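Handout, section B. The chain below has 812 residues.
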Amino acid sequence: MARRCGTCVALISLLIAVVPWPSVSAQHTLGAGSSLSVEDHARPFLVSPDATFSCGFLDAGENAFSFSVWYTHAADKTPIWTANPSAPVNGRGSKITFRRDGRLALDDANGTTVWESTTSGGGGGGAMAISLLDTGNLVISGPSTTTVVWQSFDWPTDTLVPSQPLTKDTKLVAGYFSLYYDNDNVLRLLYDGPEISSIYWPDPDNNPFQNGRTTYNSSRIGVLDGNGFFLSSDNFGVNASDLGLPGVNRRLSIGQDGNVRIYSMNVSTGEWTVTWAALAQPCSVHGLCGKNAICEYQPRLRCSCAPGYEMVDRQDRRRGCKPMFRTVTNCSLPASKPEQRYKFVKMPHTDFYGYDLWFYQSVTFEFCKKICLEMCLCAGFSYKFQGQGDCYLKSVLFNGYTSSSFPGTIYVKVPIDFDASPAHLGTARRSTAGGLACNPNDTVTIQGSPAMFRRSGNGTKWTYLFAFAGVLGLVDLIFIVTGCWFLSSHQQSIPSSLEPGYRMVAGQFRRFTYRELKDATGNFKEELGRGGSGVVYRGVLDKGKVVVAVKKLTNVSRGDEEFWAEMTVIGRINHINLVRIRGFCSQGKHKLLVYEYVENESLDKHLFDPDRTLPWRDRFRIALGTARGLAYLHHECLEWVIHCDVKPENILLTREFDAKIADFGLAKLSKREGATGDSSLELSHMRGTTGYMAPEWALNVPINAKVDVYSYGIVLLEMVIGRRVSDQTTAGGERLEMPQIARLLRQVVDTGNVVPLVDGRLQGQFNPRQALEMVRISLSCMEERCNRPTMDDIAKVLTACDDEDEHPAYRS
């Protein structure tokens, strides 16, 4: 049950009790030099004063042990914290030692230290102490018992206990699954496997607000209280089913199945009972069965392979399935190569979530099937008809699941000579060609249900075809009549090649006529700005209630592809640091986009105007917000997006001086390959603005996300110096080249003297540590592209700087 958190007072009050210091006793507090051998694992290392918690060695497998904390009276001694979850130690000769330097260290039988506490600010030798508190927090204190130099609550593994906070710097991890706060301040569950990563909770089909969450919080903190209520700062709150029941020990844990649950202990038996779970359907968890596999729950979880695939490792379902036929290795085979043919195997009530090559709305089954055949990288398609036909082309068969309640059907693409009958599923016929190519003229065979993949006899085949043709004809007639009315009533001219895309975006955004936008802008009277892709005007909609920015695209004689690419991409993107689109117009030669109105102009107006002074606090906030927005585009979008024109003019500012990146919709879209953003693509022409373009644009090499990193580095430096980098000159008036600027920046970083570089209009009112870090980041962004950091790395570094005191200033 979600509850709104007006303030974080309730959360903070819960945290006050995180480090309550009990009276010292030999049972729950030890001095430096204490140790425990694994052979004595039956004896705890420490016990909390009220005996609720114990810590010591727990059995982690055959002759393997971990050093953990657990509820003393739990029947199965489930650990609530473990020092070495991925590196168990030997059952003989291993030991845990509280060293005299204040570090807690776990040594294996061969003397190797497999884990040690990251104790800071220690000292005092024997004055150091380690204690297990009544909260379950294992704490190392300095000479003063109120000085905490390390605590296990700061390093959670897979569990939270009451009063233990989950923060922006911590996460719960179990295998490939983690519970963490994303950089949009939302609590999420993530599958992060060896090849693919995927967010699966809250519902990834919705934005945070549709899921009852809010991104408007900066604390990023969640706490389970003693009554069984978990409260998160993103507006998520949930009750355990035994809420308020006194004397109950509870924990919140993420399991190896990727689900998060609250457990309550039975006082008399010590057994754990699930009193809340994040996901009611186990197959909603992504990655459980691996690639090319299908999850099914009836009533136990079962993994099976898609037709044409077999298990990689039957002992480890997470490794998924591999194809039993030769896969496509080259999608641009020469025409002289023999073309292979494909068919589809039908799997009703089945879907593979995400990784869509494309999505079409209001299209026929035959259209969907034909497009998948023509796309070399299409591994299959999903089709469902609920008043309209929805078609999803799949590049990867991942997150597969079967449910009787799912209305769609997946069609898995296999070679035409692959026998999908049960008797032959284990032996696929191999293609003799060097690879598989797509032939749009292929005949497609749609096989039976997933329970029995059989070849249909001729009689059944023709009966099916006649029946299907009749239904298809009726559906086409409805589409034609409806389409004619729609097009004639709005007098639109839509290229036939773009009709499927038009139907898709028309179902997702508000569609405006040219007359509506002409009236809303007063015949395009008030210009807000202009760039290479068009002119932006101020407009008013909904009887003067809503102010918008209307972008009138230019050069659309060759720009339809860019226009439709922008529409399909922006419709899937939502981030607090990105400008949001409200709708569009496509009417003949008129192509317009309608954006939210960002009232405080663009960064260049505030940064380069000699009559304005942008305060340092706002500059840093803008730098951080821009980094987070670009990191989202590069690493977190369902598809990998490169902006290609990062500059101050494309960074808009809200009334509170929060950054919103504009104009990213015209960027080249590429299939994401991994989390590093190293995938490259080729663009038909150069993009960007002189002074902000990375050197590789001029080298005619494939472009990747590092072009945005370079541009961001230039913008970041400009926020420090308050001037255009491209306008910088020597004492003799000669323009400084980038190698010269890089050398100057390197001197600043080496000496640490950033003062002469900072904008003089600030009159010394700036944070020198933040300024130096921004210069250091800017310098790294100007390196060869393989050495540049990612935007995710940059966002993390700036976030760490943001946690520092905002007030320190240098006065010259």
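Note. The chain has a mean pLDDT of 78. Compare this with the example in section A.
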